[in-house]
């Protein structure tokens, strides 16, 4: 796995796990970013639009999702994020008044943030 770390001045540099002074991938810090080459193509998109369980099921096996997850007019009361641990993007929830529970026990980071917009009917 290739890991990019923030250097001085916000520059990203590759952390080579084979060098003596490098951290191993399991010793990651919040400033590290996973490079897109290590993420399956179905886990990478500018925006994942989610309106129902079938849409979220397309990415629940991803450990890392590269791109925004936009939940829009979600039909069910519950959404489950499965194996997703990292969202390199935003989690956006819009116009989903039926959605009352989000199960995301493995999510440990959302790069840009969580946004909820006018979820009333």
TrEMBL record:
Start-end of Basic and acidic residues biased regions: 11-27
Positions of the UniProt region annotated as Disordered: 1-40
Superkingdom: Eukaryota
Name the record gives this protein: Uncharacterized protein
Organism per entry: Cerrena zonata
């Amino acid at each position: 796995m290739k890991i990019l770390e923030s250097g001085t001045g916000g520059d990203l540099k590759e952390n080579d796990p084979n060098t003596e002074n490098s951290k191993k991938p399991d010793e990651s810090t919040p400033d590290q970013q996973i490079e897109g080459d290590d993420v399956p193509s179905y886990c990478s998109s500018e925006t994942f639009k989610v309106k129902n369980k079938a849409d979220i099921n397309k990415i629940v096996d991803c450990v890392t999702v590269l791109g925004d997850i936009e939940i829009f007019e979600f039909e069910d009361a519950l959404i489950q994020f499965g194996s997703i641990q990292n969202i390199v993007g935003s989690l956006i929830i819009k116009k989903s008044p039926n959605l009352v529970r989000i199960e995301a026990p493995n999510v440990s980071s959302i790069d840009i943030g969580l946004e909820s917009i006018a979820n009333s009917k």
